[in-house]
Design goal:
Length: 442
């Protein structure tokens, strides 16, 4: 970087590096920025636009001026100034203009710190505050879940569609409609209290759960996992437990996430290939997260919430956490837990996972019979894990040609490159042993 008079010339290489740094900062600050802006302007779509404009300003300014000490505060200040400019030009929302102008003018001595402090609320976390707001009763369940996954989780409409096994156009329409309802309903962007907050808790738990799931098994891209999403979901889960310490499902969800996250380091081999539960090096499992997850389950039991949907899933994760070796897994208990979960959540995905547990407990023929019961479900026709499970059952029965076809179908439906590579390897394994039946002890 060289100086020419009062201007700083930035080399293309350096500019590219700074640009990536700025985009990384924006990804970290995006949700907090959007949440804070939404509270001031009362319009989620406008808040997102202002946040984007602040990013554009940063990309134009920071390469020459340098990244400020408090980049989040800089972005917020810039976005709020833009909001004031818009309101002045449109001659509307005068009370907001006065409030925002006051915030900016009185904070000039240390405006970024002042803006940061002004964002604090009773929960103390802007992301969680925005989730509660977006889970407003005016919205349908599908609308609020899709909206919060998009705004909070940063998921694309394609990723949300995969999570719900729903067409992408349907998800996009839900998001647009949800924003319109919030805008026309003049919804105040604030944290509900008391019964109003409790009424939205189930929706908030569901959103956090789905954010974690997308991080645990990324629906697209080269990486098998997006651990930053999982970390964010667990952080929000811990805040929720503090907010509602007597709610067993909050503890159940946090327990589930911690038990699942304990396996992160073992899910990929050194060469980057995916590892199944059977092939994972369990010495790499995080014992501290397992301990915390099991303690969370004990809290759920003390609160009498063992039949909650997240508590049951946490109990399923605990079956694996307690097994020192794959061969020691209590698959009969896992199958029984899935029976209970399917009664609570009668969905094709839960039925699929139940079939896997029953196959491991009672043999692959049992698994195939259970898959046959749900194969006609439209959602499963484009669901890669269904064909992966079918391929595995067929493989264990020695039906290599049929197994290879199922694995190939699963690979074609997967949007994740690491997962596709794993499934293609299984296709090759089927071709290598077309006549050899493999039915290892379970």
């Amino acid at each position: 970087m060289t100086r020419d008079g009062d201007a700083i010339a930035v080399s293309p290489e350096r500019g590219e590096i700074i640009g990536r740094e700025i985009e990384g900062i924006y990804r970290m600050e995006r949700v907090r920025l959007t949440a804070g802006l939404a509270r001031y302007v009362g319009d989620l779509s406008l808040a997102e636009e202002l946040a984007q404009e602040a990013l554009v300003s940063a990309l134009a300014t920071w390469p020459t001026s340098g990244i400020p000490p408090n980049p989040g505060g800089w972005l917020m200040t810039t976005a709020k100034r833009r909001a004031v400019d818009l309101w002045r030009r449109r001659r509307m929302m005068a009370r907001h203009e006065a409030s925002l102008s006051h915030d900016i003018e009185t904070g000039r001595r240390d405006e970024h710190a002042a803006i940061e402090a002004a964002l604090d609320d009773e929960i103390g976390d802007e992301r969680l505050s925005l989730i509660f707001t977006a889970c407003h009763p005016l919205l349908s369940r599908d609308q609020r879940t899709a909206l919060t996954l998009k705004v909070i989780g940063g998921l694309t409409t394609e990723e949300i569609a995969r999570a719900f096994l729903t067409p992408e156009t349907t998800v996009a329409q839900r998001i647009v409609r949800a924003k319109k309802i919030l805008r026309e309903g003049d919804v105040t962007f604030e944290v509900p209290v008391g019964e109003a907050r409790d009424a939205r808790l189930a929706s908030v738990l569901e959103v956090i759960y789905l954010i974690f799931n997308e991080g645990y098994a990324a629906s697209r891209g080269e990486d098998l996992m997006r651990t930053q999403l999982c970390d964010e979901a667990m952080r929000l889960g811990r805040i929720l437990v503090g907010l509602a310490p007597g709610e067993p499902e909050a503890h159940g969800l946090l327990s589930l996430m911690e038990l699942q996250a304990s396996r992160f380091k073992a899910r990929l081999a050194p060469d980057g290939s995916a590892q199944t539960l059977e092939t994972q090096n369990r010495r790499l499992w995080d014992r501290l997260l397992i301990q915390r997850g099991l303690e969370g389950l004990a809290t759920v039991k003390r609160l009498g919430g063992e039949d909650g949907i997240y508590a049951l899933q946490a109990a399923l994760a605990a079956v694996h956490a307690r097994a020192a070796r794959f061969a020691e897994t209590d698959w009969a208990l896992s199958a029984a837990l899935y029976d209970r979960l399917l009664d609570r959540v009668p969905s094709p995905v839960v039925a699929l996972n139940r079939a896997v547990a029953h196959a491991m407990a009672f043999g692959p023929s049992t698994g195939l019979a259970l898959l046959a019961e749900i194969e006609a479900e439209p959602q499963l026709a484009v669901y890669s894990p269904f064909y992966a499970a079918k391929g595995d059952f067929l493989f264990r029965l020695g039906r290599m040609e049929d197994a290879g076809q199922a694995f190939g179908r699963a690979a074609g439906l997967s949007g994740n490159e690491t997962e596709r590579a794993f499934l293609r390897e299984r296709v090759l394994a089927c071709r290598a042993r077309p006549l050899e039946a493999e039915n290892p002890p379970l």
